[in-house]
Amino acid sequence: MAIKLPAPPPNRDRVLYAAAAVALSYPDDEVLARLPLVEEALAEVGLLAPFEAVLTHLRSMPVMEAQAWHVQEFDLSRRHALHLTYWTDGDTRRRGEVLAAIKQTYRDSGLLVDLDGELPDYLPMVLEFAANGAPALGVALLNTYRASLELLRLGLVKDKLPHADVVAAVCESLGGPSPQTRAEVQELLGGRPSELVGLEPFINTTPFPVPGQQLADVTQGG
C-alpha cells in the first residue's frame, strides 16, 4: 500500500524552517549577513517572537566570539547536538545505515543537495530542505526525528540557551504536545502503534517517530 507523505507545509512554516536553519547554523559572515532578511520575513508572518533572543545573541558579540560560542555549545556539547540521528542512534553501526537512508531521501527528491562537508542529518540542512527543497519530504524527516528535536529543545531550555524558543517553534509546527522530560520522550517512542514498525524511513506523518528506537545516552557530559 502506498504511503502518503504529509502535505507540503504552509508558507508560514516554510519561513519558520528557513529562519531556524539560519539561526542554528555556524555564524559565519554569510549567515550573519542574512539576519536582517530573516528578521523581516519572520515579522511578515508573525513569527518574530521565538527568534528575538537568538537574534539579539548573534548581534551582541564580535563574529569570532559568536563562532567560538557556537562551537562550544553545539559542536563540543552532546547536550545540544544538531545531528538528529545522534540522539537516537549515538555512535553505532546502525547510525551509518540511517545516515545513508537520509542521503538517499535527498537523492530521491530529485534535487542536488550540497552537504558541504556536513552529515545529512544536520538539523539546519534538514530545515532548509523542508523550507526550500522538497517541503513534504522535509517535514516527514522532521516528524521522523521529532524525538531528537524534543531532546534538543529540552537541553537548550535546561541550559538557558537563546535557541530554545526557535526549536520549540519548529516542534510546535509539527503538531501534537511536546513532552516535558526525556522519560516522556522515550515513553512516546515506545507507545506508537505496532503497525508503524518496518515502514520505509522518512515517511512518518505522526508527531513522533516509529517505535522500537532507544534513545542514545548522549545527554550526559559536555
TrEMBL record:
Keywords: Nitrate assimilation. InterPro entries: DMSO/NO3_reduct_chaperone (IPR020945), NO3_reductase_chaperone_NarJ (IPR003765), TorD-like_sf (IPR036411). It comes from the Bacteria. GO terms for biological process: chaperone-mediated protein complex assembly; nitrate assimilation. The keyword Metal-binding does not apply. Coiled coil: none annotated. The keyword Repeat does not apply. GO terms for molecular function: metallochaperone activity; unfolded protein binding. Pfam families: Nitrate_red_del. This is Respiratory nitrate reductase chaperone NarJ.
